[in-house]
Amino acid sequence: MLKEFKEFITGGNVIEFAVAVIMAGAIGAVVKGFVSNIVMPIVGMFTGGVSFADKKYVLSEAITDAAGKVTTAENAILYGAWIDTIINLIIIGFVMFMMIRQYNKMKKKEEEAAPAPSGPSQEDLLAEIRDLLAKK
Asked: How open is the CA angle 14-23-91, to the nearest 5 degrees?
């Protein structure tokens, strides 16, 4: 069982999957930064200088004591952050689509370029087997 696990964990599919997960995390961080720092300020400019990251619907205000210390935190729906997340999803989906599209094109070219293996046909092999059996 340990040998099978070693073969599984060192196999190409697991390593490729691990690399893909790490790359997806890195791409996600880059896209999040792109959306938050570049796309959303442009969107905010067209909406009158409003920052979507700060948009929220307050359900209940924060409660403070006499010293000004917050005793109960504000309860709010952060729909601006949700809009950022939706834009992140769309951009990541588009990037993944483009990557898969290019991968499929490369794969198709490889399949077209690979010649069919030359050798005896199935009929030839069966005829050889028949002849060998007839000699016995």
From this structure: 130
Write out pLDDT tens, residues 65-87: 888 887 888 888 988 888 878 88
3-state secondary structure of 72: strand
* pLDDT of 116 higher than 80: no
Q: Which amino acid is at 114?
A: A
pLDDT higher than 80, residue 136: no
From the centroid of its chain, how far is CA 90?
12
Report the Cα–Cα distance between both ends of the chain, in Å, rounded: 44
| Among 33, 49, 31, residue whose Cα is nearest residue 41 | 49
Q: What percent of the chain has pLDDT over 70?
A: 92
Among 68, 69, 43, residue whose Cα is nearest residue 54: 43
Structure token digits, residue 56 = 């929220």
Q: What is the Cα–Cα distance from 51 to 36, expressed in whole angstroms?
A: 10
Q: CA 95, CA 101: separation in Å to the nearest integer?
A: 10
Boundaries of every domain in the chain: 2-105
- Indicate the fold that domain 2-105 takes in CATH: 1.10.1200
The answer to whether residues 35 and 91 touch, using CB atoms and an 8 Å cutoff, is: yes
